[in-house]
Amino acid sequence: DVKVTQSSRYLVKRTGEKVFLECVQDMDHENMFWYRQDPGLGLRLIYFSYDVKMKEKGDIPEGYSVSREKKERFSLILESASTNQTSMYLCASSYGPFYGYTFGSGTRLTVV
Amino acid sequence: GQQLNQSPQSMFIQEGEDVSMNCTSSSIFNTWLWYKQDPGEGPVLLIALYKAGELTSNGRLTAQFGITRKDSFLNISASIPSDVGIYFCAGQQLHYGGSQGNLIFGKGTKLSVKP
């Protein structure tokens, strides 16, 4: 069964901490994405990547960075966590342009 | 970025009722997708539509790709409690700047079903 795995379901971090959210896919997909989901705002694209070591900003990249050193792994980094980054974070991958996405189960991050 | 207008935002229905939701855009899309997100989980693909006018069913779910290519709807017949969740529409365009066919999502329709 193909999968996108997010390393943590729930995380609680302190303001100012550096936070790493990890995502791994086992489908040999080229494209990977990070979204955050907040009530009433839907899914908002933070960053995406079409290839190893490649990254592109999405709609809300401020306060985030990403790393893609291997094809199967796409990490989201909060350089200095703030309370307004409390959210549900979803990772997704796809075979390529114009293919549907497979989502992970999400990481619910709380910054206190 | 571009947006899809998804409505309604939320629905409260009785078990057994039929449900209808839709997405509209001012732009043309080449693919429409419908996802469902169970509480506490990531979205899962329900139906994909690739041609204008296409009508596709998946069990009690039926979705259509609008003739104008600017809209799509999803119907759920005879709802049951496990239909609870958030339903997202998503569209793809052949050419959209540098994003090579990234999905554009609606904001979701939250469905609640009373037994």
Walkthrough of the structure:
- The complex is a heterodimer of chains A (112) and B (115).
- Chain A is mainly beta and 112 residues long.
- Chain A is 0% helix and 53% strand.
- Chain A has no helices and 12 strands.
- In chain A, strands 2, 5, 6, 7, 10, 11 and 12 form a 7-stranded mixed beta sheet that branches.
- Chain A is globular.
- The N and C termini of chain A lie far apart (36 Å).
- Chain B has 115 residues and is mainly beta.
- Helix content of chain B is 0%, strand content 50%.
- Chain B contains no helices and 11 strands.
- In chain B, strands 2, 4, 5, 9, 10 and 11 form a 6-stranded mixed beta sheet that branches. A 5-stranded antiparallel beta sheet of chain B has the order 1-3-8-7-6, with no helix packed on it.
- In chain B, a hairpin with a 5-residue loop joins β7 (61-65) and β8.
- Chain B is globular, with a radius of gyration of 14 Å.
- The mean pLDDT of chain B is 91.
- The interface between A and B is medium-sized, with 24 and 27 residues.
Low-confidence parts of chain A: none
State which percent range the strand residues of chain B make up: over 45%
What structural class should be given to the helix and strand makeup of chain B? Answer: mainly beta
Determine the fraction of residues in helical runs of chain B and give it as a percent range: under 10%
Largest sheet of chain A: 7 strands, mixed
SSE order of chain B, as H and E? Answer: EEEEEEEEEEE
Structural class of chain A: mainly beta
pLDDT below 50 for ≥5 consecutive residues: which ranges of chain B? none
Radius of gyration of chain B: 14 Å
Mean pLDDT of chain B comes to 91
Write down the overall geometry of chain B.
globular
Which outline of chain A best applies?
A: globular
Whole-angstrom Rg of chain A:
13 Å
Query: Which quaternary structure do these chains form?
Result: heterodimer
SSE string of chain A, helices as H and strands as E: EEEEEEEEEEEE
Biggest protein-protein interface? Answer: A-B, 24 and 27 residues
